Amino acid sequence: MNRCSPEKIIVICGPTGSGKTGFAIDLAHKFDGEIVSADSMQIYRYMDVGTAKPTHAEQAVVVHHMVDIVDPDQDFDAAVYAEIAGDCIRKILAKGKTAFLVGGTGLYIKALIHGLFEKGPSDPSIRGRLKREAELEGAGMLHRRLQQIDGTAAEKIHPNDTYRIIRALEVFENTGQPLTVFQQRHGFRERRFNTLEIGLSWPRPVLYDRINQRVDIMMEQGFYSEVQDLLDRGYGSDLKSMQSLGYRHLAAVIRGDVELADSLTLLKRDHRRYAKRQLTWFGARESVHWLNFDQKRFAGDLIREFI
């Protein structure tokens, strides 16, 4: 088999619940590859069940990178991801192996492939004041402020994602321009890697059913205990990592704010909505080859031709 040239990588993407992990492991094993995770939650230690992290058995079949690399209270963003993941890919290629970038965090994939947009200068004093405002009045208030100055950014950022809300507001207060302007100026036009991008597609009703079942399976695997353990370790529910899907829902149950059954109904709904946003994101990338889950052989043909 011909090894891939230094700039070529395989991307396996798609919405949550689409089966990316198993699909990618089979292909990476076939093509003597290693996997670089493109999942914004699998980077965190102690967060295994709720992130559908590859099991130890799966990681024994194919080497995985960008999994379990930071604690839940450490700052981490697309800039840090692009730098570390880029180094991982170059090391994989230097060994003559095939690099597979696998995940559903579109911004991480985009940042790695195209580089990051200009964010504008930082101002620690503005950021500190906004953090204090968030602590006093809540992230929702800041998100409503962001809607007024940059509706496009507000639409992409979850109302509970305090970190990204503060960053967008900081850029505006510091420069007088919305974060969206800086993003559009960059346009993600440059390419750091030559990619073959494969997206996994399911009929929408089937995907939603898989997501509902996935939540049930996570609960059977001990998701509730995992969230309780994180809180017991001192990782507060206000952390960026703990505000993610599932963790914030179950933390609310543990606090006594909501009943478990109601929380799980909301969690399934929010997972479906997240999948819909992911499909919109990846659907806008004309470079993605959309395949059904059972088209693994065809995916192999595409990879063989590409490398």
Topology:
Elements: E1 8-13, H1 20-30, E2 33-37, H2 56-61, E3 64-65, H3 78-94, E4 98-103, H4 106-114, H5 124-137, H6 139-149, H7 151-156, H8 162-175, H9 179-186, E5 194-201, H10 204-220, H11 223-232, H12 247-255, H13 260-283, E6 288-292, H14 296-306
Parallel strand pairs: 1-4, 1-5, 2-3, 2-4, 5-6
Helix pairs in contact: 3-4, 5-6, 5-8, 6-8, 10-13, 11-12, 12-13
What does this structure look like?
The chain has 307 residues and is of the alpha/beta class. It has 2 domains: 8-116 and 190-306, P-loop containing nucleotide triphosphate hydrolases (Rossmann fold, 3-Layer(aba) Sandwich), CATH 3.40.50; 124-186, Histone, subunit A. The protein is 54% helix and 10% strand. The chain is built from 14 helices and 6 strands. It has helices spanning 20-30, 56-61, 78-94, 106-114, 124-137, 139-149, 151-156, 162-175, 179-186, 204-220, 223-232, 247-255, 260-283, 296-306, and strands spanning 8-13, 33-37, 64-65, 98-103, 194-201, 288-292. The protein has a 6-stranded parallel sheet with strand order 3-2-4-1-5-6, with helices on both faces. Helix 5 (124-137) packs across helix 6 (139-149) and helix 5 (124-137) crosses helix 8. The longest helix has 24 residues, at 260-283. The chain is globular, with a radius of gyration of 20 Å. The termini are close together. The relative contact order is 0.17. Residues 1-6 have low confidence and may be disordered.
